[in-house]
Hints:
Blueprint: H1 3-13, E1 17-21, H2 26-37, E2 41-46, H3 53-62, H4 65-68, E3 71-75, H5 81-88, E4 93-96, H6 103-108, H7 110-131, E5 135-141, H8 164-183, E6 187-192, E7 194-196, H9 209-218, E8 224-226, E9 232-233, E10 235-237, H10 238-250, E11 259-263, E12 269-270, H11 271-282, E13 295-297, H12 312-318, H13 326-340
Parallel strand pairs: 1-2, 1-4, 2-3, 4-5, 5-6, 6-11, 7-10, 8-13
Antiparallel strand pairs: 9-12
Helix pairs in contact: 1-10, 2-3, 2-10, 5-7, 7-8, 9-11
Amino acid sequence: MTTYQQRRAELQRDPKTWLVTGAAGFIGSNIVEELLRLDQFVLGLDDFSSGHQRNLDEVERAVEPAAWDRFEMETGDIRNLEAVREACDCVDYVLHHAAIGSVPLSIEKPLLAHDVNVTGTFNLLLAAQEAGARRFVYASSSAVYGDDATLPKVEEKIGRSLSPYALTKLVNENYASMAASCYGLETVGLRYFNIFGPRQDPNGAYAAVIPKWIAKMMRNEPVEIFGDGETTRDFCHVADVVQANILAATSPEKDSINRVFNVARRGKTTLNELYEILRSRLAPFHPELKDAKPVYRDFRVGDVRHSEASIDAVTKALGYEPQFTVASGLDQALEWYRKNL
Length: 341
């Protein structure tokens, strides 16, 4: 039995109450679904600025009616301290995913990124501590590694921030460390690399690369690659992110708290390789993709050139074991993408 299987069984025997911020979003809704399958009590908080009701509707269809009855959804903005305090009341664990999650958007609107990502997270840290929450798990990002060229990325070595988004996530990590040392709140930060899977939104100028490219391929539109296509990313399936969140919240080990961990698969995929993986899987349904080629554009300001994670620390401390490769994860998610994009 894996650590995650053991922890899931423990939760089903002894249900807890969870707050998931950004619950209507891509990652948040997947977390909500897993918690409800484990018979937990879940409160969702979202202002629906980027999350969607359709994600929650999909969760409702996926779980048993009795499980859905254990879910309560609140519409609220994490910049509103009173709304956050109300949401944190009587919860055991906070899983914080509400954020401005785009590098380009943070460059275009840095004040918004700061208000949501920094002020909003600080509000939640204060409210969670005041409410006596057992643990506060929050989404950080591989963007904090900035211009550090070390590969694979290890948690102790970061570089200069390359975007307002990256800096907001680094500030979050420092505020969480402060909340632990000054107020005794147990915190765990999860530095996500490039997450993909069901419910990932392809729309808008700042959409993640995988759903955006799939949508374009299905519409027979040209796919743009910024740079020469040899930029690398460490792609991680959302189910592995869900695993990391639950392990981080419930780990009894002392060396698992008040730390930051990479969450990834541990592998490098170039954008050219990703394009070919997607093209080859969609071509049987869209024959026009048989000889399709991407369009190359200039490199984008703020983008990191290469990204690959070491997951030694998270594996040792939390028992994290990623279940999906890029190929197997896309095989699992492709039906959802085809139906919903």
